[in-house]
Amino acid sequence: MRTFPDGFLFGVSTAGHQIEGNNTTSDTWFLEQQQPSVFTEPSGLACNSFELWESDLDLVASFGLNAYRFSVEWARVEPEEGRFDDAAIDHYEAMVDGCVARGLKPVVTLNHFTSPHWFACRAGWLDPEAPELFARYVAKVIARFGERLAFVITFNEPDLPAMLQWANLPPVVAELERATLDAASASAGVERYRVANVVLPEDMDAIADGMTAGHRAAKAIVKDRYPELPVGFSLAMVDDVVVGDDPSVRDRKRAEVYGRWLELAREDDFLGVQNYERLTYDGNGLVLPEGAASGALYGGSEPRSLAECVKYANSVAGVPILVTEHGMEGQDDAKRVAFIEDSLLHLLDVIDSGVAVLGYLHWTLLDNFEWIFGYEKTLGLVAVDRETFARTPKPSAAALAAIATGRGVPDPVTSEALVATDRPGRYGKQLASHLSKRVASQWDDETGTGSLVFGHGGRADLAAVDGGLRFELVARPASVARLEDVIGRHLVRFGARDELAVAWTRSDGTAGTTQRNSEDD
């Protein structure tokens, strides 16, 4: 088993507004109530984590993780301009202490998109006094519990507005964002109601300037009190790859989206990297997948993407990298398991090459409120009942737990089957053709061999041998049982047409033989 360095962090990331619930004095809550609103539904009680935070920390600790990233909600700490709520600060201090008591290093984000309603009424980061106002809030928080923190992240994804300018979004999204801000300005009775994660193109550069100054001001506050406490920010990063020999469009995107922030990160102790997808460019622009509509969302999960983003960010910024978010959206948790394992293997390659990587914080602990998408998108290791808020860990939680406690990615395991037939070549060819609708498959008549390559989780090699067709499955431990079940049933059902016997030796050492028309493998 390949292992991670000593001191490497394994954890999960969350954000206050997305899980706490009733963040009623925040700018995002206000936008959710507008008509029209770019938010498909209000956050409401979210995951009720403001009340259930202790059970959430218990879950994280039960997974064998050693770090927990969460955000302090500025809107709770300073619900009215100049009035600080000691009870809110007490709450976040209790969370920090709860992490320490459970052996979890607290990684605290000071601003995860959301800010106080009053701050947005002042035009948010367009206000010349914004950096000073942010630093004042940071000083209150750091004075209370800064000495117990492991890492401080000032801002989450300040590059996101620039990234979205390159996104393949339908025009209606930009129109709805503008309409939402116009409605909020009218409702609040102000000229410009501005927030950090719904940004108009004409405001983008000025908001980035304000957040740059805010980062430096907040960092100065932290360093003045705790010089050794690591401070940085996190970036949204897509793995932008080039097909062909013209990287000009890709390079222009990198300059416009990441350039100023990677330069700023050179001043810091670390950089947070957050990756979910890969996009492909040639000299003319984005290369859409075959059949994709020009106005559709695109991009796909690719296990190598995280490692490539980490390598690129480190090469430009020159500081250690902390993976502060990485995950996969969707209901198929088996794919999430394989994605985590394969992504971490590629991350190990980067670490072994000499890149300083401090840890891996998975997004996210809970199925939560995913901003404009509401509760439709699911990225959590733990499912949440929307009525009772009951938490149910998924298999992916156990997979990450196994990696964290073992300090490495488990080696693949194998299982074998033999289909008894005197025409193994014919059967292998038919089987590969049959399964081609589900997986990448091939069969070579000349050599009598073939393969099945699964999108996430393993491969199988087929070979015509004396006595039949040999089938060898190689997969990660977390995936092999599922693949054995799926492929085993295909072998039996497909072979039953010719009344073939299938002998199966599973990865756990159990064995069995199936005759004729039985559907048990």
Q: What would your notes on this structure say?
A:
- With 521 residues, the protein is α/β, with parallel strands linked by helices.
- The protein has 2 domains: 2-157 and 169-235 and 322-347 and 357-409, TIM Barrel (Alpha-Beta Barrel); 413-514, Alpha-D-phosphohexomutase, C-terminal domain (TATA-Binding Protein).
- It has 17 helices and 22 strands.
- The strands form 5 sheets. Strands 2-3-4-5-6-8-11-12 form an 8-stranded parallel beta barrel, surrounded by 4 helices.
- A hairpin with a 5-residue loop joins strand 21 and strand 22 (511-514).
- Helix 13 packs parallel to helix 14.
- The protein is elongated.
- Mean pLDDT is 93; it is low at 516-521.
Task: Characterize this entry briefly.
With 521 residues, the protein is an alpha/beta fold.
| CATH superfamily (homologous) name of the largest domain | Glycosidases
Number of helical segments with 4 or more residues: 17
* Biggest sheet, spatial arrangement of strands: 2-3-4-5-6-8-11-12
CATH class of the largest domain: Alpha Beta
CATH 2nd-level architecture of the largest domain: Alpha-Beta Barrel
The residue-averaged pLDDT reads 93
Shape: elongated
Helix content: 25-40%
Please report the total strand number as a whole number. 22
Distance from N terminus to C terminus (CA atoms, Å) equals: 30 Å
- Total discrete domains: 2
What do we call the CATH topology of the largest domain?
TIM Barrel
Instruction: Describe the largest sheet.
Output: 8 strands, parallel, barrel
What low-confidence regions span 5 or more consecutive residues with pLDDT below 50?
516-521
Cα-atom radius of gyration: 26 Å
In terms of DSSP E residues, the strand content is: 15-25%
* Structural class estimated from helices and strands: alpha/beta
